[in-house]
Write a structure and sequence with these properties.
The complex is a heterotrimer of chains A (459), B (331) and C (274). By secondary structure, chain A is mainly α. Chain A has 19 helices and four strands. Chain A has a two-stranded antiparallel sheet with strand order 3-4. In chain A, a hairpin with a 2-residue loop joins strand 3 and strand 4. The radius of gyration of chain A is 26 Å and the shape is elongated. Chain B has a six-stranded antiparallel β-sheet with strand order 4-9-5-6-7-8. A six-stranded antiparallel β-sheet of chain B has the order 10-15-11-12-13-14. Chain B has twelve helices and 15 strands. With 331 residues, chain B is an alpha+beta fold. Chain C folds into two domains: 13-189, P-loop containing nucleotide triphosphate hydrolases (Rossmann fold, 3-Layer(aba) Sandwich); 203-273, no CATH class. Chain C has eleven helices and nine strands. In chain C, a hairpin with a 2-residue loop joins strand 4 and strand 5 (75-81). Chain C is globular, with a radius of gyration of 18 Å. The chains are: A mainly alpha (459), B alpha+beta (331), C alpha/beta (274). Strand 2 (277-280) of chain A pairs antiparallel with strand 14 of chain B, so a sheet runs across the interface.
């Protein structure tokens, strides 16, 4: 191409002739013009409610109240979720298990073989029923509340409040935004790290996003908090204690995020904290329609659908494992027994580990899998209250407080689900970072639960 | 149980394999890198007005005199350098090569500091290695274009492009600067490391304006606006300064944006030249240009970052950037 | 700036407007949607296209790209949501995508959404867009917020100064959006003439651009907006330099007859690979 080379040479020559800060001048020039035009077009008529925004901002970012307010708000959201979801969850469970029983009866009356009835109703359907009744109510409360906070513009304030901590960890304050998304779904959280410009800090945010429990893991945490923590308190404070326990676990997760970020930025991902600019947009009145749409359709149904897609086959697998008997015991029992010594080392048991293996595609089905395994293939339609679950776990399967605590820790720290791992790969296009993103949390989860188990047993 | 142990070991091995360090250097490259280091040494010595010899080469590269002689002989046989009664000189060909290496070094430092946003502390070492690769792979030109043809590196050294371009910044040493006169830092020598560390601790980078206010046999006391700090004379010897323009001299009346108290207003006067590359562009785009009105709007529990109102929006900035923006307090 | 006899701020948009959601296979006009972050750009996008939209990534990038469509008076429009940016001058991925789409994607019209409560900041972007393309409609969103804050925004004065139409809107309620669409249609049809304001740069830069732009036009005949390209080269934009030196730019200009989208995708994927 003739001429092209000349153009570039000429450009280089002309550039050398320009003042070194010509770029500054151009931007300044543009802003001067913008200022001129806007001052002509905009008139300040009154100072109406201008101050309200600032007053709220002063409060939520206040040196004294900013962080406590954040923790309080978080606890309140969890409390609302726990309290609100409790009754609908039980009602859904009752209804769906009633359908299961009727369905199975119906199949039997048509003379269908036991394995078909068992596979479809006690396997596939039961998996679905568990996931829907355990997940739908909390999500239908958590997501809209969360979306309101998001739409109001509170999340950037959280990033603002916490940036200093992230900076000390060599990470970016906007990591707080991707973590907030992670509460909903870690895969969405990984995508949300796109707001971070620096590749190094973005990778840190991607690799540690797993340490905020996603919505698929909340039911596990909420159930354990309700059964083991709330039970220690009088009924009046039970739900508050449960919310506090969940908030505590989440804070622990944030602590892990910061520590792991700090370690990463001093080892694998060395570098300085980069430029940080964050707009704190004015508070906006959330639009109800949009909130309902994004929280229910985009998030709740999306997550639920995904959970159901994995729950149905998982339910089938569990049923098969529980109903194929080899040398006197079910396959599930054999596998659980095989995992048992390792589970014991971690303060867990073989069934829990088996549940986590089956739940690799989606964390949502951990609790249902566990319960179905504990209860065997027998009927469990009467499993309607947390009290019953508690009896099964503690009295029949030897759970202790250590089991509960370590399961909460394991749930918080273990490897991300398959969807998240796939998303990490899509975002980084690197096998190495995907492997680290999957294996590092698993190693940490093993390490932490192992240590806790040993320390508790020594005492 | 055994299976578990085997599995864990297998996974760990796989992870270690994925993380392994690729061989960065082969032997052949090492030799070439050494030759380039010799060229660079002769080149910078000449530009500093000093002479290079076999001994200075051996001393600078920390190699045996015998190896130094071998390297110099090879350069001579390639027509890159000439030895004239113990003094080493570069041929025009050698001069071109050396300049390319220096250019690659400074460009890579610029890249690391401005675009990869690494600390000034950490840019020299990687650049010492990367310069050879960039020259060998003929990527210097592309890097220059990619960076938008910067004129100086983060230390304040000019980036030479063609023969005759300045290699050293025209500046004086801070130790000899008259007391009470403000001076702008134009260059900070990054070797030796211990001194460089001291300079960075003092917050000195090209673009900072300091005034020496007291001087003794072993240290110099400097003031930068409201901040007063001291520097050993040795470290001050690695800092080059120049007289400030009338605009900069006014800086004594300005304050750093980060020093505004919540609720205080001001007008942006200047973005410190120490703000470079991506960060500078970002701040400009956000409207922190000359004459912009700003107000310190919000602090937080840790005092960092703070939020400022600029052109109708509240923007949070970390103190290390906001302290590079100079404002005039409004009454 | 609305057309005479069509001043229809309150008439139901549905009368002319049909949201097409993701049925985008065929469209007659391509409209780009630009704006600062937090200006309610996505509200405008959602209100125009309905809630269903096609969300993917920009080719070769991890930046989300949303597309939607609507039909107005029998003409089908495809709306491409550009990443929200404060500027088009920096080298961030988002800004580069917006810049390239405006220059090479050749939208028939570009809507720039601005926040009525922070006009000064937003106009910076508008002025930069006007440097690239003249077919622009400014949508002054969040008029209600402005009122709440005691600000009176004179949209006419804005339009006069900028040389392109400006429409006040409250995207959340849909107010002003039908006027926006009408104006966009008018600009595309040439019924509304635009004379975009292009502020003079400092003299030495103008001179340099003046010298370089004709050379670019000679080297790449038919190139859109040689002045902007000249400015980008002077600013050391290495992607632009690359596009020029490898002949990509010329190829894109030649491909003018081909669907613009394809050309754009190609350019971006080429750049994404390096």
């Amino acid at each position: 191409m003739t001429g092209l080379r000349e153009v570039i040479v000429k450009a280089d020559m002309l550039r050398d002739g320009l003042a070194p800060d010509f770029r500054d001048q151009m931007v300044e020039n543009l802003y001067l013009e913008a200022d001129r035009i806007s001052s002509r077009a905009v008139k300040q008529a009154g100072d109406a409610k201008w101050d309200l925004d600032q007053r709220v901002d002063r409060l939520v970012t206040s040196p004294l109240f900013g962080l406590p307010l954040m923790v309080l708000l978080m606890t309140a959201v969890f409390w609302l979720t726990i309290v609100g979801a409790n009754i609908p969850s039980q009602m859904l469970a009752t209804a769906l298990f009633w359908v299961e029983a009727r369905g199975a009866d119906l199949f039997q009356s048509f003379g269908s073989p036991w394995w078909l009835t068992g596979f479809l109703w006690n396997g596939v359907w039961r998996g679905l029923a568990w996931v829907i009744s355990v997940m739908l109510p909390p999500m239908a409360i958590f997501f809209p509340v969360f979306t309101i906070l998001e739409d109001l513009g509170y999340l950037p304030r959280v990033a603002f409040n916490m940036d200093w901590l992230f900076r000390r960890a060599g990470a970016h304050g906007k990591q707080a935004l991707s973590m907030a998304m992670g509460f909903g779904c870690n895969a969405a959280g990984v995508i949300a790290t796109r707001v971070i410009d620096s590749p190094r800090e973005r990778l840190i945010a991607i690799l540690t996003n797993n340490f905020v429990p996603c919505n698929g893991r909340f039911p596990t945490l909420i159930m354990l908090a309700t059964i083991f923590v709330a039970a220690q308190f009088p009924p009046l404070f039970a739900s508050i204690a449960a919310a506090g326990a969940v908030a505590g676990i989440v804070l622990l997760g944030i602590g892990f995020t910061l520590v792991v970020s700090a370690v990463l930025s001093r080892t694998l991902l060395q570098g300085e904290a980069s430029a940080f600019t964050l707009e704190l947009p004015p508070y906006r009145r959330p639009s109800v329609l949009r909130i309902l749409y994004t929280s229910l359709i985009d998030r709740t149904l999306f997550v639920l659908w995904r959970a159901m897609l994995t729950a149905a086959p998982a339910g089938a697998v569990i049923w098969i494992l529980a109903n194929i008997h080899v040398s006197g015991a079910s396959l599930a029992r054999h596998i659980a027994d095989f995992f048992q010594p390792f589970g014991y080392l971690l303060g867990l048991d073989g069934v829990i580990l088996l549940a986590y293996v089956i739940a690799i595609p989606a964390n949502e089905i951990v609790v249902p899998t566990m319960l179905m395994m504990y209860l065997g293939a027998g009927s469990m339609s009467e499993m309607e209250s947390f009290d019953e679950i508690r009896k099964v776990l503690v009295d029949q399967n030897g759970w202790t407080l250590l089991t509960a605590v370590n399961l909460m820790l394991f749930s918080l720290l273990h490897n991300p689900c398959a969807t998240t791992i796939l998303t990490i790969w899509k975002e980084t296009r690197s096998g190495k970072w995907t492997a680290i993103g999957a294996l590092m949390p698993l190693a940490i989860a093993f390490g932490v639960t192992f240590l806790v188990a040993q320390v508790v047993r020594l005492w | 149980m055994l299976l578990w142990i085997a599995g864990t070991v297998g996974l760990a091995a796989a992870a270690a394999f994925a993380l392994r360090k690729p061989w960065v250097r082969q032997r052949g490259r090492n030799r070439r890198a050494d030759l380039e280091d010799v060229l660079k040494h002769i080149f910078t010595r000449r530009h500093e007005g000093r002479e290079a010899s076999m001994e200075s080469v051996a001393g600078h590269l920390r190699i045996s005199p015998r190896r130094a002689i071998r390297l110099c002989t090879e350069l001579e046989s390639q027509g890159m350098a000439e030895s004239d009664s113990g003094t080493l000189r570069l041929t025009p060909k050698g001069e071109d090569w050396a300049r390319e290496v220096v250019r690659a070094h400074r460009l890579w430092e610029t890249y690391l500091a401005n675009e990869a946003r690494m600390s000034m502390r950490d840019v020299h070492g990687p650049a010492e290695r990367e310069e050879h690769r960039l020259v060998a792979d003929r990527q210097v030109e592309a890097l220059d274009a990619r960076l938008g043809h910067p004129r100086s590196d983060p230390h304040g050294d000019p980036i030479p492009r063609i023969a005759g371009d300045a290699v050293l910044s025209p500046a004086r040493c801070l130790t000899g600067w008259p007391l009470g006169t403000p001076a702008e830092v134009v260059h900070v020598e990054d070797e030796p490391e211990a001194l460089f560390e001291q300079i960075l601790k003092g917050g000195l980078a090209p673009g900072t304006v300091v005034t020496p206010i007291e001087s003794s046999a072993d240290r110099i006391i400097l003031s930068e606006g409201s901040r007063v700090f001291e520097l050993s004379r040795l470290a001050a010897g690695s800092v080059q300064v120049r007289a400030v323009s009338a605009e900069y001299a006014q800086r004594s009346q300005w304050v750093r944006l980060s020093d505004l108290n919540t609720g205080e207003q001001g007008e942006v006067m200047l973005l410190d030249p120490a703000l470079r590359g991506f960060t500078r562009r970002r701040l400009l785009d956000l409207g922190l240009t000359g004459r912009a009105k700003v107000e310190a709007a919000l602090g937080n529990a840790f005092g960092d970052p703070k939020a400022y109102r600029v052109r109708g929006t509240t923007i949070a900035l970390r103190n290390d950037q906001a302290s590079r923006v100079w404002v005039k307090r409004s009454a | 700036m609305s057309l005479p006899g069509h001043d229809c701020d309150n008439c139901p948009a549905g009368a002319h407007l049909e949201r097409m959601g993701i049925r985008l296979e065929k469209f007659d006009r391509l409209v780009a949607l630009a704006g600062n972050p937090n200006t309610g750009k996505s509200s405008v996008f959602n209100s125009l296209t309905g809630l269903k939209q096609h969300v993917g990534n920009w080719p070769g990038k991890t930046v989300a790209r949303a597309e939607g469509g609507f039909a107005f008076n029998g003409i089908r429009y495809k709306l491409v949501d550009l990443p929200g940016t404060y500027s088009l001058l920096s080298a961030s991925q988002d800004e580069e995508i917006s810049r390239n789409f405006l220059l090479f994607g050749r939208p028939d019209c570009t809507i720039v959404v601005v926040d009525a409560t922070a006009l000064e900041r937003n106009l910076n972007l508008v002025l930069q867009v006007l440097e690239i393309t003249s077919k622009v409609v400014v949508c002054v969103n969040l008029m209600d917020e402005a009122r709440r804050k005691g600000l009176e925004v004179d949209v006419r004065s804005l339009a006069r100064d900028l040389g392109v139409p400006a429409v006040g809107a409250i995207a959340r309620t849909g107010e002003g959006l039908s006027e926006l669409i009408q104006t966009v249609a008018g600009v595309i049809a040439g019924e509304i003439a635009t004379r975009p304001l292009r502020p003079k740069h400092p003299a030495e830069i103008e001179e340099a651009i003046g010298e370089l732009a004709p050379m670019i036009e000679a080297a790449v005949p038919g190139v859109p907006n040689a002045r902007w390209i000249a400015y980008r080269l002077l600013d050391g934009d290495h992607r632009m330099r690359q596009a020029l030196s490898t002949g990509e730019l010329a190829e894109l200009v030649k491909a003018e007859g081909a669907p613009v989208e394809a050309a754009q995708s190609k350019l971006i994927s080429l750049q994404g690979r390096q």
